[in-house]
Write a structure and sequence with these properties.
2 helices, Double Stranded RNA Binding Domain
Length: 111
């Protein structure tokens, strides 16, 4: 998993980098096929914004969070990302277990 953290009008300190890494460890529970994560942190006056673009095999997920505190924004982003990954995983599992394939159709005269 490649992780890129960029700061706009913000210096990425080792403490912030470690905090983001610890929060993004949660997504490994739900998605083992993560290829790349790009995180952009922005500060504009009193608004701290963070966005993440997660590249999975076959899907890209974009999440954005704003708050007055950067650490609270990171927490919010991790929660949103976690929910979206669970939703994506459930959608894939439902497609695999739907039973709508030709194998699950009754044969002629078996109904």
């Amino acid at each position: 998993m490649n992780l890129t953290i960029t700061g706009h009008h913000l210096e990425i300190t080792p403490a912030i980098r470690e905090y983001v890494l610890s929060k993004l460890e949660r997504i490994k529970r739900h998605a083992d096929n993560v290829i790349d994560i790009s995180v952009i942190m922005t500060v504009e006056k009193l608004r701290h914004s963070i966005e993440a673009n997660v590249h999975l095999s076959g899907k890209d997920i974009f999440v954005q969070a704003d708050d007055a505190d950067m650490y609270a924004a990171i927490d919010s982003l991790a929660d949103k990302l976690d929910r979206q990954l669970v939703k994506h995983k459930e959608k894939i599992d439902d497609a695999h277990h739907a039973g709508s394939g030709i194998k699950h159709q009754p044969a002629a005269g078996e109904e």
